[in-house]
Amino acid sequence: MGMLIMAELPVVNESTVEIDGRVAVLRLDRDDVRNALTGTGLIADIVNTVRWVNAAPDVSVLVLTGAGCVFSAGGNIKDMKARSGDFSGSVPEVETHYRRGIQNIPLALHAAEVPVIAAVNGPAIGAGCDLACMCDLRMGSSEAKFGETFLNLGIIPGDGGAWFLQRLVGYQRAAELTFTGRTIDATEAHSLGLLLEVTSPDELMPRTLALAKSIARQPPQALRYTKRLLKTAQRVQLPDFLDLCATFQGICHNTDDHLEAVSAFMERRPPTFYGK
Fold first, then answer.
1. What is the pLDDT of residue 8?
2. Which regions in the chain score pLDDT beneath 70?
3. For residue 97, what are the CA distances in angstroms to 30, 158, 163, 187?
């Protein structure tokens, strides 16, 4: 990995953050519990890193992956059985645990200002499957597996998975996967459009970083505006969306990077962008 070019990294306790050029890599580092999101500090690590990236103009892409052989097993089943931790208490108390805990992940990733790529290195189950679905792009190792397995445990996708999955694979397929709770392998995930690409385990991070760097070479400001437009398009009507496009385009036409991009195109040379 390259050296950090900013003063400080985000505060993470059970993950690692590395910088490679304009690409940040967040690696969940609780393989001892299969990178479970509940009962660990991983929720805070993800949320803090996304917020840091939003405020870091020198970062253009965030890659999210897991250490060890699992991407994320989602919720801690031992805590579920014991009704402890995030799963303890009365109905209002459990509701509060969800709203103040794991639901901060979809809210943070939905508000991420840069493209987020999931490098799915192994099983992504339950909330781990949903975590991958919350990202903009998903690259998968041949060892990756996906399961929207909540009903198998007598619960529902409390982290918003029913919202994300159907937007990726369509309502009918999302309903089938959620209602049956079956697990699919990387090949089927790719055929459904859940994975952009399937690689060998050794090639997952090199291929993911190659994709991330190709995106990070784009003009930084225009890239963030484009990400905002893609997200906004999911929830507004076309006339309002076009108004926003016109405003963002006016901003982009007045940047130095736009002139540099046009000049480089006409001069047949690689552009050099400064985010201005």
1. 84
2. 1-7
3. 21, 11, 20, 35
Instruction: Tell me how crowded residue 174 is: count the other CB atoms within 10 A of its CB.
Output: 21
- In terms of pTM, does the model score above 0.85? yes
- DSSP H helical ranges for the chain: 42-54, 77-82, 91-100, 104-110, 127-133, 161-169, 171-180, 186-191, 204-216, 220-232, 238-253, 256-267
If we measure between CA atoms, which residue out of 157, 166, 154 comes closest to residue 105?
157
Q: For position 6, what pLDDT does the model report?
A: 54
**257: which residues sit within 8 A by CB, 6+ positions away?**
219, 220, 221, 222, 271, 273, 274, 275, 276
- The alpha carbon dihedral of 248, 251, 253, 258 has a sign of negative
Q: Does domain 15-216 have CATH number 3.90.226.10?
A: yes
